[in-house]
Amino acid sequence: MDALRPLGINLGLLTVQIVSFLLLILTLWAIAYRPILNMLKTRSERIAEGLNKARQAEEALASAEADKAKIIEEARVEANRIVAEARSRADEAGTKIKSDAQAEAKRILEGAHAEAANEKDRVMTDMRDQISSLSVAAAGHLIGENLDTKKQHEIVADFFTALPKDAKKLGGDVTVITAVPLKADEQKKFETAFGSKTITFRVDPAILGGVIVRAGGQQIDNSYAYHLTSLRSSLS
Predict the structure, then answer these.
(1) Which residue, of 71, 101, 123, is where some domain finishes?
(2) 39 located within any domain
(3) Is 80 within the bounds of a domain?
(4) 147 within a domain of the structure (yes/no)
(5) Which of 1, 59, 165, 179 is deepest in the core (most CB within 10 A)?
(6) Structure pTM?
(7) What is the CATH number for 207?
(8) Domain of 215?
């Protein structure tokens, strides 16, 4: 102590001051420093938690963006599928409409052709009766006698339906060509003559009269057009 006195230092006072400073430090440690440390620790934890939540939010946002992109892509794919399906259905509908229209047009044409053929047959049947009457009248005039009704019908039937000689000998399915449509009883006559063979009846006014029979690649022509042609050839 005596050694410090020349320096003007009071050891007792210094000791008291040191002790007071230590007490102050302890007091500050107890009262302020530890709470400050705890506050800083809490704040650091909150900052870390905030950063973690921010990271989670960023990840959630990235996931949401990915989900959004996925949903948009799925919607685009679905939209393309719907458009493609709609186009396909439209094409199918267009094709069906076209096919139905073509079928309807074909049906109308076939009906028109059938109606025209029926009308043609009707007109030719009417002409047949007129031609028959004129032919019978001409024949009666030539032979100088009146023909009775039965004889007239026989002459008319023979004119249009006389079966050519040797026609029954033809093999295969038969096609019978006449100048006018045949009546049911006249067709029956050919069916009876040819037996079980399949017969197709055709009308060709150009042959004038008589019958042409075709079967198995062969033909027997007993038409009046053929006889007129032969007559012209023989006279030339």
Answers:
(1) 71
(2) yes
(3) no
(4) no
(5) 179
(6) 0.45
(7) 3.30.2320
(8) 160-235
Residue 204 gets the label, from left (phi > 0), alpha (psi -120 to 50) or beta, of beta
Q: Is 48 left (phi over 0), alpha (psi -120 to 50) or beta?
A: alpha
CA dist 68 and 64 (Å) reads 6
63-72 pLDDT per residue, tens: 888 888 899 9
Counting the structural domains of the chain, the total is: 2
> In the 8-state DSSP scheme, what is residue 167?
G
Q: How does pLDDT run across 93-138, given as a tens digit for each residue?
A: 888 888 888 888 888 888 877 777 666 666 666 666 665 555 555 4
- Alpha carbon distances (Å) from 120 to 34, 72, 115, 123, 182: 124, 70, 8, 5, 13
Model confidence at 203: pLDDT above 80: yes
Tokens 């096919």, located at residue: 99
Residue with tokens 């950063």: 51
Lowest mean pLDDT among 14-18, 76-80, 93-97, 200-204: 14-18
